[in-house]
Amino acid sequence: MSQPDTDTAAQSPSSQQEPQIQTDGRRSHSEQMNQPAQTSQSESSHDGKDEHALHTNLKRGMESRHLQMISLGGVIGTGLFLSSGYTIQQAGPIGTILAYSIGALIVYLVMLTLGELSVAMPVTGSFHVYAEKFIGPGTGFVIAIQYWLTWTVALGSEFTAAGLLMQRWFPDSPTWVWSAACIILIFTLNALSVRLFAEAEFWFASIKVFAICAFIVIGLLAIFGVIPIAGYQHAPMFGNLVKDGIFPNGFMPVFATILTVNFAFSGTELIGVTAGETRDPETTVPKAIHTTLWRLVLFFIGSITVMCALIPWRQAGVGESPFVLVFNSIGIPYAGDIMNFVVLTAVLSASNSGLYASTRMVWSMGNEGMIPRWFAKTNRRGVPMLALCAAMAGGLLALLSSVIAASTVYLVLVALSGLSAVVVWIAIAYCQIVFRRRWLESGHSTSELKYRTPGYPYVSWAAFILCTASFVLVIFDVEQRFALVAELVFIVACYGAYFLQQWVRKRKKATEADDLDTLWVARD
Predict the structure, then answer these.
(1) pTM to 2 decimal places
(2) Which of 10, 342, 409, 450 allows an S-S link to 405, with CB 3.0 to 4.6 Å?
């Protein structure tokens, strides 16, 4: 990692009266960092120095209900609806439940650390800004690229999935037509306003949440014999969970499943991305974080427990969604069509969130000067259109690579995106540790923070260690070892690109200075 910045950004933008952290005798750059995040609906007066910020303002258009659903929408995807059966086959019922429980705990610990940072500094694209301030500018650049890649690759796969899902109802139509329709819809939702994006995401996520709740309720009624289910003359209860032992395939598959679960839970950190465009982040961000754990437990562990209790684990996910298997066994008509619709909304939700997250990361990099600043320009509705177009272009390139070079380029991109989210989590936890230490060293007290990570420093270090272990121990999973190697190479390449960029900028400045000196000598 590069050397830590000494100019620490720790002032809460909601309270301009709070003193700033000073770690080296100079004033902090927190005002400069947070200026673009001050995105009230009415534009305040600016002098000439703030002219750039005037044209890069985002809108605080999200409410608490939007933020909570966005955090859920980023997590609940096709993996739960389609791939959960495969996970059950690998680790067994108890092993899968254990893996998801550990994964939910890791995510919750990370969210607790992110909460303190997001409330103190609610800036859009927050992860790389925190990494830049509390670890170093090189690491900030790497985190920005990592997170942008995560969602860009996801966009390509979601666009493809949307076209394939529509084939169930329109088998004679070309897949690309529906993929194009999905692209146009999602681009429009993001281009019109942040509130329209949030409202659309709220309803997309609501459909998924309703489907899971209905599945759990109907499944529990079948488990306790209230409603009949095919293949059972009596109430199934929970015998299938331990029918073949607690770990029928051994414990190592459980470990591999934990790694997969961490990837499945990526998306909860969207709370940090949206903080800069959320109304009253001091209230809404902590509320969204505290509801994350129990909702993850309810939706993921609850639905998987129901699956395992009603379907023998060796039959789960063999060619068909476990949700469809359960609904068909209970006798619910049109189960396949119902779940196809639910999965389609999950795809639209994931692509909607993915384009938003990718766009804000591009905007934030432009706002921080990592890429040309015109990427941070916004229109009168507060939408960064250039960043949006760049993010969509990245998604289209990922889509193209999935068609043309699926076994080479796209395979590498998928491997990178899988571990990138874990790298971001590691950075979040470490940034909070450094932030709190500098906050206290600068003479502040924890009582001045609007939101504090509970159990500091134990919670923070637990999040950091568990996430780092999840990253490093991938080496023991043969199928995912390639992803680890690709990720490490990519991280080195990102650092190399950053330092090359810095070298070019220094050379350019030196050349300009020499030209100026030459000009003055010629005049004399």
Answers:
(1) 0.80
(2) 409
